[in-house]
């Protein structure tokens, strides 16, 4: 065998079409199918472990994990459908058991489930039988099986009751059944007609409750097998009566209900958790429902959506994905979902978006995967990058060292081929219209050159990167990577070229095609160096050895061919499996091939005629491309299933291969100048923003520190006080404890004494009882001895009688034996006499026989001659008959073949008859059970009818009472309406009065404030005038004294100087110059002071208005009470009028003779209620007039004060200023 093996290292993709295709193993690990493997993926550490599928299987159909998360069941399709159970606790996930349908032919199992204790497993077989199997899987024993549906109604899901191993739920198109395992069989426990509903999924919420989702977006809740209520995933729950049952619904209602929500989203997946359940609600949407306290209903609390894909040309396409499976982690922290386009999404249920109530969105669990056939695969030399393209219009760049998706971009057209430049900075992609050369930027793939090569199915860069080859049908174009010139056009293939490969030195190019030709081209002069043509084989893959001497090709004839010098040296058969692609390592020591069934083979090299290879389970579709990395460390394969597998190439001891030289991968990337400048600008803006945020945060931190220090001081003082109070409480409690200990000791002493006395009394009584019991024991022992002796005597007597009976029987049978011996002697004598008589008769018969034989011989000799003559005649006839016989034999053989066919059909029909008989028996059982249920329901209907009759009687009585009460209520309601209208009118008038009052109060307060301010200014000005007048008087007296020295100039001069020094200071000269500016500033200061006073007064006014409003409310309440009194008086008035009318009718007195005193007495009562309202209006009018007069007076006063203030604020005239004294 080959010394080199491949080990599955990492895988990108998800296999679609598998039921329940994702499940949690633990909080960090999920399990999902990919290719023909099950992957255990650790979300945090990003490692993978693999469980390979079985050989010759046609693919996985369903997954199921046990409740204890130890076992994984995998259903696989094949000639015989199987279920394989793996032990996940084993490091390599060891295979435990393989289950099948036994004698029942089963192609596949479409759904599975483990029991709550993980000991049992159910599996739903597919069409046409749709049989449900119930296994004790550890013993591979089928406990029971049952046919769940007909051929036209497929089953979508089966599940166990989470609390009961024996109850099973089955749902499908028009099918919702509950089965219970009892007495070695599965029996249906509910009978509902739900042909109009297509149940796509269901989940158990409790031991009795199941929620099922339908194709029309409805959620149906079943309890104990009966439909309780239903709701839509797009609206709030619509509850129904608890005893509603589906059998009572009319067919028309069922049809209308089924037709109305036809446009509703499909509930394709549903799962339960402790708070409620999660279900899909159409494309790209998952809804969370939580249980409410009232009536055990559920309400929708959150919608989670798949976000738009920014890398796509149509971002909304990602939102149109249909959910296939929903799974919640064991701690209920994370929700994971898989879609019909092979993507995995997750969301943390305790995330910020979920808690804030914002729109929540899923995130990729690991990366975005391809959702269609991968058509191209390529690697480079300078970077650990992988490029893939697919029919899903996308190109993806992967990193096989870090196992991450580096770049992803979608285009308008399908991508057929891809090629990475050896530097890892450029990429070629072949589309239906053009071949595009693109730059791999840091976050984008941008086109910078297009070539007119339509539908390019293959393109490859040379190892030096200076050229690339592109295929267009049966032509091969070679372009320069630097000048982009078309250097060569290689013509020679008659069919489409399927694969091309460069030699190590780029001097040769090998191509193969559908025409069965393998050509080797010289890339310098475009000449064909060698060729090998085999028209019976369409080649699909080709590779070349490092020395460029040997070519390996694979095709549709299921062989691997080694070609040298235009000759096929060896052909290795592939066991009826077609090879699709082939790859050889750079060292020339390894050869790998991919097959049409998705497996990968490591083939021993040099090739041998024997089948010497190792086969690995890889993909679920044909391998489309295969590449080995430049350092021979990894093998890369892609397939029609949309998966990319990375294989680690190792030796048999599990060690990696030695590299010829260590390759250091480049870290450089391409980025455009505009992008770099934009990013630098953004970085500068972000840096400035960060600095601002730092300053702001430091300021906020200082404020918080101050606040917290104050709080700490307050808390420390508070806690010190509490500690002191607790210390005092502790002292008090210690004192109480000591007191209680003393009291408890006294009580304990008393209790101990009491118990000791009771113990002594109990011991004495128990001793007496023991003595009595001992005496009884002695008596019983004597009785037992006497009984034993009596029984022994009886036994002895029975043995004596037995011996006597035996002696009598032996004597009887001995006498009989002697009689029989005498009879035997007589019979022997008779038999000897008969023998002698027989021998004499024998002799006579022999003599007679000899004579008869002689006569017969003569007779038959005559007949023999006659027969010989007849025989000669018949020989001629037999020749004719032989021919007829051969023709008849052919007819018989044909008839036997037909008989055999009929026998096979008969066996099939018998099998069908048996299955139908089983169905008949099952249906009879169903009919019996339904009859029983019908009887129970008829009894219930009879009871309900009785209750209904009683309730109708009660209803009749209540209706009569209601009519009587309505008659009594009508006049009162009319009165209430009249009173309400009056109250509304009065309230309107009252509101208008309140508005007037508040406006007047505001005007008054403003005027009062202005008046106060003018009063203050007036007092200040009068004081200032008084001070100036006193100063002038003092100056006049001093000047008069100076005039006395008019005759003495010297003294006059000294006195004048003293006068100047006394009355005029240096600052006064400057103040006089700037007096106008000071007056202006003083005016503005006073104005600001007044504005502040006005603001404070407005606040007071708001408080006063609130007080007035409360007063008005009180007045309104008083008015309401007065209105009530008025209404009462009016009712009294009506009563009095009716009484007066009665009196008049009785006495026959006319209305004109009624005295005026009586009329005034009656009308005074009616007018009493109006006095309050008239007096109130007159009082309000009077108050308003007084306030108007007061406002007019205040306005006049304000005008006078304003004029006086203006006069006082004017600057003094220049005549009052003193001249500057000059020496």
From TrEMBL:
The keyword Coiled coil applies. Residues 234-263, 1202-1223 are annotated as: Disordered. Residues 375-649 form the EML-like second beta-propeller domain. It is found in: Cytoplasm, Cytoskeleton, Cilium axoneme. Keywords: Cell projection, Coiled coil, Cytoplasm, Cytoskeleton, Repeat, WD repeat. WD repeats lie at residues 367-402, 490-531, 616-649. Residues 241-256 have a biased composition (Basic and acidic residues). Residues 1208-1223 have a biased composition (Polar residues). SUPFAM superfamilies: Quinoprotein alcohol dehydrogenase-like, WD40 repeat-like. GO terms for cellular component: axoneme. InterPro entries: Beta-prop_EML-like_2nd (IPR055442), CFA-57 (IPR052993), Quinoprotein_ADH-like_sf (IPR011047), WD40/YVTN_repeat-like_dom_sf (IPR015943), WD40_repeat_CS (IPR019775), WD40_repeat_dom_sf (IPR036322), WD40_rpt (IPR001680). Residues 676-743, 788-848, 899-1024, 1080-1146 form a coiled coil. May form homodimers. Associates with components of the nexin-dynein regulatory complex (N-DRC) and the CFAP184:CFAP263 complex. Belongs to the CFAP57 family. Associates with components of the nexin-dynein regulatory complex (N-DRC), a key regulator of ciliary/flagellar motility, and might act as an inner dynein arm (IDA) hub or linkage. PANTHER family: CILIA- AND FLAGELLA-ASSOCIATED PROTEIN 57. This is Cilia- and flagella-associated protein 57.
């Amino acid at each position: 065998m080959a010394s080199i093996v491949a080990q599955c290292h990492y895988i990108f993709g998800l296999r679609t079409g598998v039921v329940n295709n994702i499940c949690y193993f633990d909080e960090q690990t999920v399990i999902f199918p990919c290719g023909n493997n099950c992957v255990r993926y650790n979300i945090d550490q990003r490692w993978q472990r693999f469980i390979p599928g079985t050989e010759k299987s046609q693919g996985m159909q369903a997954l199921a994990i046990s409740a204890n998360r130890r076992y994984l069941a995998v259903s696989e399709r094949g000639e015989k459908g199987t279920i394989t159970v793996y032990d996940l606790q084993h490091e390599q996930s060891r295979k435990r058991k393989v289950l099948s349908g036994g004698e029942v032919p089963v192609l596949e199992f479409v759904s599975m489930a483990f029991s709550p204790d993980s000991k049992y497993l159910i599996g739903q077989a597919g069409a046409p039988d749709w049989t449900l199997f119930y296994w004790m899987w550890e013993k591979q024993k089928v406990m029971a099986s049952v046919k769940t549906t007909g051929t036209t109604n497929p089953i979508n899901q089966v599940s166990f009751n989470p609390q009961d191993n024996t109850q099973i739920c089955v749902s499908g198109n028009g099918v919702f059944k509950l089965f219970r395992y009892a007495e070695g069989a599965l029996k249906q426990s509910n009978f509902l007609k739900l042909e109009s509903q297509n149940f796509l999924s269901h989940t158990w919420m409790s031991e009795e409750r199941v929620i099922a989702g339908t194709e029309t977006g409805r959620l149906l809740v079943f309890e104990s097998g009966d439909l309780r209520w239903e709701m839509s995933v797009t609206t709030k729950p619509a509850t129904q009566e608890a005893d509603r049952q589906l059998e009572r619904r009319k067919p028309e209602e069922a049809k209308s209900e089924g037709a109305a929500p036809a446009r509703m989203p499909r509930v394709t997946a549903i799962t339960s958790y402790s708070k409620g359940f999660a279900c899909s609600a159409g494309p790209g949407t998952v809804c969370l429902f939580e249980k409410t306290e009232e009536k055990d209903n559920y309400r929708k609390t959150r919608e989670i959506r798949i976000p738009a894909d920014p890398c796509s040309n149509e971002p909304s396409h990602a939102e149109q994905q249909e959910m296939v499976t929903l799974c919640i982690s064991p701690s209920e922290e994370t929700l994971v979902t898989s879609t019909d386009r092979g993507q995995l999404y997750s969301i943390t249920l305790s995330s910020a978006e979920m808690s804030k109530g914002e729109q929540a969105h899923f995130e990729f669990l690991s990366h975005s995967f391809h959702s269609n056939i991968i058509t191209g695969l390529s690697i480079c030399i300078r970077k650990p990058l992988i490029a893939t393209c697919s029919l899903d219009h996308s190109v993806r760049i992967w990193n096989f060292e870090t196992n991450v998706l580096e770049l992803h971009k979608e285009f308008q057209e399908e991508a057929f081929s891809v090629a990475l430049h050896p530097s890892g900075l450029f990429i070629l992609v072949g589309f239906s219209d053009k071949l595009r050369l693109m730059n791999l930027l840091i976050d984008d793939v941008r086109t910078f050159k297009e070539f007119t090569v339509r539908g390019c199915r293959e393109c490859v860069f040379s190892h030096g990167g200076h050229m690339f080859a592109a295929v267009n049908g049966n032509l091969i174009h070679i372009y320069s990577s630097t000048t982009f010139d078309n250097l060569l056009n290689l013509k020679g293939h008659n069919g489409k070229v399927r694969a091309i490969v460069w030699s190590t030195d780029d001097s040769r190019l090998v191509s193969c095609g559908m025409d069965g030709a393998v050509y080797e081209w010289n890339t310098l002069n475009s000449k064909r160096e060698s060729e090998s043509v085999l028209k019976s084989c369409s080649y699909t893959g080709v590779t070349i050895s490092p020395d460029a001497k040997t070519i390996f090709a694979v095709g549709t004839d299921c062989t691997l061919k080694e070609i040298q010098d235009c000759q096929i040296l060896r052909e290795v058969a592939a066991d009826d499996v077609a090879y699709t692609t082939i790859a050889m390592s750079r060292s020339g020591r390894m050869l790998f091939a991919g097959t049409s069934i998705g497996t990968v083979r490591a083939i021993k090299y040099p090739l041998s005629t024997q089948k010497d290879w190792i086969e690995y389970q890889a993909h679920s579709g044909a391998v489309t491309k295969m590449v080995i990395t430049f350092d021979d460390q990894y093998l890369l394969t892609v397939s029609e299933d949309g998966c990319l597998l990375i294989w680690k190439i190792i030796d048999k001891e599990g060690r990696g291969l030695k590299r010829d030289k260590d390759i250091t991968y480049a870290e450089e990337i391409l980025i455009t100048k505009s992008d770099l400048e934009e990013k630098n600008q953004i970085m500068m803006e972000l840096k400035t923003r960060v600095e601002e945020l730092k300053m702001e945060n430091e300021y906020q931190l200082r404020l918080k520190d101050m606040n917290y220090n104050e709080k700490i001081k307050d808390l420390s003082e508070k806690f010190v006080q509490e500690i002191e109070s607790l210390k005092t409480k502790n002292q008090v409690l210690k004192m109480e404890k000591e007191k209680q200990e003393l009291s408890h000791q006294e009580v304990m002493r008393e209790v101990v004494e009491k118990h000791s006395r009771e113990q002594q009394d109990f011991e004495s009584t128990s001793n007496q009882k023991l003595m009595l019991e001992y005496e009884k024991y002695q008596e019983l022992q004597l009785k037992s001895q006497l009984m034993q002796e009596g029984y022994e005597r009886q036994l002895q007597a029975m043995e004596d009688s037995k011996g006597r009976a035996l002696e009598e029987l032996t004597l009887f049978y001995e006498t009989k034996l002697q009689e029989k011996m005498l009879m035997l002697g007589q019979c022997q004598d008779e038999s000897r006499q008969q023998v002698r008589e027989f021998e004499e008769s024998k002799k006579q018969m022999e003599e007679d026989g000899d004579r008869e034989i002689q006569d017969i011989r003569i007779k038959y000799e005559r007949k023999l001659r006659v027969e010989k003559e007849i025989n000669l005649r018949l020989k001629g006839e037999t020749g004719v008959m032989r021919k007829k016989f051969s023709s008849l034999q052919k007819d018989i053989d044909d008839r036997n073949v037909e008989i055999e066919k009929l026998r096979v059909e008969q066996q099939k029909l018998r099998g069908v008859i048996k299955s139908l008989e089983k169905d008949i028996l099952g249906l009879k059982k169903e009919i019996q059970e339904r009859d029983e249920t019908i009887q129970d329901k008829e009894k219930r209907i009879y009871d309900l009818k009785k209750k209904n009759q009683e309730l109708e009687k009660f209803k009749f009585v209540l209706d009569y009472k209601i009519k009587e009460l309505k008659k009594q209520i009508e006049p009162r309601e009319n009165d209430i309406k009249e009173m309400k209208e009056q109250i509304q009118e009065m309230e309107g008038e009252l509101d208008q009065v309140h508005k007037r009052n508040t406006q007047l109060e505001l005007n008054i307060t403003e005027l009062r404030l202005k008046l106060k301010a003018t009063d203050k200014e007036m007092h200040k000005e009068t004081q200032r005038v008084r001070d100036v007048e006193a100063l002038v008087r003092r100056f006049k007296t001093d000047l008069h004294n100076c005039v006395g020295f008019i005759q003495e100039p010297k003294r006059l001069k000294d006195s004048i100087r003293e006068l100047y020094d006394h009355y005029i200071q240096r600052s006064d000269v400057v103040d006089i110059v700037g007096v106008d500016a000071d007056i202006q500033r003083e005016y503005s200061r006073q104005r600001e002071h007044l504005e502040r006073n006005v603001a404070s007064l407005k606040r007071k006014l708001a408080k006063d208005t609130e007080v007035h409003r409360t007063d008005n409310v009180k007045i309104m309440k008083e008015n309401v009470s007065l209105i009530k009194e008025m209404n009462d008086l009016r009712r009294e008035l009506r009563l009095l009028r009716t009484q007066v009318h009665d009196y008049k009718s009785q006495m026959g007195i006319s209305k004109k003779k009624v005295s005026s005193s009586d009329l005034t007495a009656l009308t005074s009562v009616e007018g009493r209620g109006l006095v309050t309202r008239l007096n109130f209006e007159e009082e309000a009018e009077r108050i308003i007039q007084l306030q108007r007069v007061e406002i007019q007076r205040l306005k006049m006063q304000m005008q006078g004060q304003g004029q006086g203030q203006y006069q006082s604020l004017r600057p003094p005239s220049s005549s009052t200023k003193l001249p500057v004294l000059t020496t």
